[in-house]
Amino acid sequence: MDIMLKYIIKIFNFIEYWFQRIVIRLYYYCYYFVKFGINRVEYKQMPLFRGKLLIKNNGKCKLGNQLTFNSVFKSNPMGINKRCTVFIGKNGQLTIGDNCGFSGVSIYCDSKIHIGNYLFCGGNVSLWDTDFHPLNYIDRRDGDNSKTQCSPINIGNDVFIGANSIILKGVTIGDKAIIGAGSIVTKSIPENQVWAGNPAKFIRYNHQP
Ligand SMILES: CC(C)(COP(=O)(O)OP(=O)(O)OC[C@H]1O[C@@H](n2cnc3c(N)ncnc32)[C@H](O)[C@@H]1OP(=O)(O)O)[C@@H](O)C(=O)NCCC(=O)NCCS
Fold this sequence. Notes:
By secondary structure, the chain is α/β, with parallel strands linked by helices. The protein has helices spanning 2-38, 137-142; strands spanning 41-43, 48-50, 54-57, 60-63, 68-70, 85-88, 93-96, 101-103, 106-109, 112-115, 120-121, 126-128, 153-155, 160-161, 166-167, 172-173, 178-179, 184-185, 193-196, 201-205. The site of coenzyme A (COA) has 14 residues, from strand 19.
């Protein structure tokens, strides 16, 4: 009797799990179908969402195939501490290639951010192509954000960015480069290299076939 009850509970949990997955995925599909339409987001295929992505597109946004945005705590065992957020300013152009994964990422694009294919973007990473505020204190007092410095970010293919890293304006990261956890990247990184630290520095080469 006990064994039967155990199996009934197992079957019930299994059905509930898959039912939830299907319903939640369907919900996100419908929600982002509308949201991407309103925000004029171009996409090849609807990304996989685990939790809600906050997105505001005032410029141009193109998304590739097979993207994942993890925004809830349990969606990544490393422990995400914020939702994925994507903001594109009126002069901004964001392009994301195929097969990229993001967990609690913060993307703020005021000029241009290009991301290639197969980006493994660790938890809570930030990609900011702008300083957000002008460096001159008079302009800041005047609230004149038109003088804010911004410069494009370019990320190649097969890049791995460690958790909690910040990629700042004007940075290019070459193909297959690796960024250590908690790095602040202020300078461009050539392909096939490992960089880490604050500010990120060369650690070693990463030559692979
Ligand atoms: C960058 C990384 C891949 C390097 O791994 P590794 O090749 O095994 O390198 P080592 O551990 O041998 O370290 C080599 C050197 O780099 C330094 N280093 C490694 N990672 C670093 C980091 N994140 N920040 C600063 N320095 C770092 C080490 O202190 C060491 O310095 P030393 O030669 O002066 O002693 C790894 O440390 C890392 O940060 N992985 C990312 C993990 C992550 O965030 N995953 C995503 C979760 S969602």
